[in-house]
Amino acid sequence: MKNVLVTGGAGFIGSNFIRYLLHTETDIHVFNLDALTYAGSLENLKEVADDVRYSFIQANITDTEFVEQFLAKHKIDTIVHFAAESHVDRSILGPRQFIETNVMGTFSMLEAARNIWIQPQNQPLENVRFHHVSTDEVFGSLAPGEPAWTEDTPYSPNSPYAASKASSDHLVRSYGHTYGLPYTITNCSNNYGPYQFPEKLIPLIILNAIEGKPLPVYGDGQQIRDWLHVEDHCEAIHLVLTKGAVGSTYNIGGENQPANLTIVETICEILDELSPASPHKPHKNLIQFVKDRPGHDRRYDMDTHKISVELGWRPRHTLTEGLLDTINWYLAHPEWVTAIRQQQAYQGWLDANYTSR
């Protein structure tokens, strides 16, 4: 990797990956292409903004002509494609944007890579890589006792978001098989950690608890997820890029299976210990059960055997350690929270999604 294009690099996972890449690699230039929609913010990248190895470009991935020109001009050899609409709840309320960004946007990126890398073959194909970041939600939902998903599990998406990501995965594979595009795909579980947009479950619960607001929990709160610390995710992607087999897919998970209610209660317990003088203690009294979302998947579980055996990766963070690290980060960065809330209007969406439910 010499010239790396990260799409959606101003978002939660993308910005963490850019910081990880600049910290890990020395002889590299990272280009961040982001449209700066509601969940993307340059506040996430202030600490690397002046790094000579980093450049930001505000543009939309659906602009194929621009992306083609950019790939050629900067001799991009690696594309790490994060850019996506990623919130299931938002996809239920407004699915169109998910099709436009996740399906058509990925198609646009693939076309640009094909037109610059493959047709004129400006670079040897062994020197380029298209890496697509996807989700475990493409696999659907597991019943109690069912084995965890492997890379060979058939797709069965249940939400507009999951369907859009499944579609983009299929497009990437098709460009590899039909045109010879060197690609890899990773399917990750639920991410959490620093810089996550405050509408997602873990930061929403942390910030609401700190402020004494209700802690909304869908249904009975027994939906089971696998939780992956974003730093572990970044390390896994880097390993796939540097050591993973072209044309392969790798599952990435945190190796845990708590219920959502357990996550919320654990956050409350940690905050009780960190803030013993809080007027909102015990924070679990703020928990408020709300109507479940339509078609809510009951259980996810990732089999990470392949990436462990082939690349030697396992998550470094336990869930308890990761939650403590994340809570401490939010407590230590109130200025980031304020800037994000001022910059990105999301209160109306929270009201529509929780209060109106």
Walk me through what this model shows.
With 357 residues, the chain is α/β, with parallel strands linked by helices. It folds into two domains: 3-189 and 227-255 and 299-316, NAD(P)-binding Rossmann-like Domain (Rossmann fold); 193-224 and 258-295 and 317-347, UDP-galactose 4-epimerase, domain 1, CATH 3.90.25.10. It is 43% helix and 15% strand. It is built from twelve helices and eleven strands. Strand 1, helix 1 (12-24) and strand 2 (29-34) form a beta-alpha-beta unit. The protein is globular.
Detail the topology: elements first, then pairings.
Blueprint: E1 3-7, H1 12-24, E2 29-34, E3 54-58, H2 64-73, E4 78-81, H3 88-93, H4 96-118, E5 129-135, H5 160-179, E6 183-188, E7 190-192, H6 201-211, E8 215-218, E9 227-229, H7 230-243, E10 248-252, H8 260-274, E11 287-290, H9 305-311, H10 319-332, H11 334-343, H12 347-355
Parallel strand pairs: 1-2, 1-4, 2-3, 4-5, 5-6, 6-10, 7-9, 8-11
